[in-house]
Amino acid sequence: MLAFDGGGIRGYSTLLMLQAIMDHIRRLETLSQYEQPEETLPAAAYLPAHYFNYMVGTSTGGLIAIMLGRLQMNVDDALKEYENLGREVFGKPR
């Protein structure tokens, strides 16, 4: 189970931490297979939905859980959408 808390922009930092975890998973899976480096899958091919059976969250964490779980987005795309959502909701910085 992967649980995300709410808290506005803190959701972005949660996605950054998950991005580091997914990068580590990609490296481990690449090492466990006997492939040449050029044959490895791109980072975007490793989806959190492939590794976590349940994703839940409150507030912005719920939005992240929907993007990663239901919509099966990769973390990079979720970060981009989270940035777009932040601009829509909070506007541009002053």
Automatic annotation (TrEMBL):
Residues 2-94 form the PNPLA domain. A motif (GXGXXG) lies at residues 6-11. It comes from the Eukaryota. One of its GO terms (molecular function) is calcium-independent phospholipase A2 activity. One of its GO terms (cellular component) is membrane. It holds the Pfam family Patatin. One of its GO terms (biological process) is arachidonate metabolic process. SUPFAM superfamilies: FabD/lysophospholipase-like. Keywords: Hydrolase, Lipid degradation, Lipid metabolism. A motif (GXSXG) lies at residues 57-61. This is FabD/lysophospholipase-like protein.
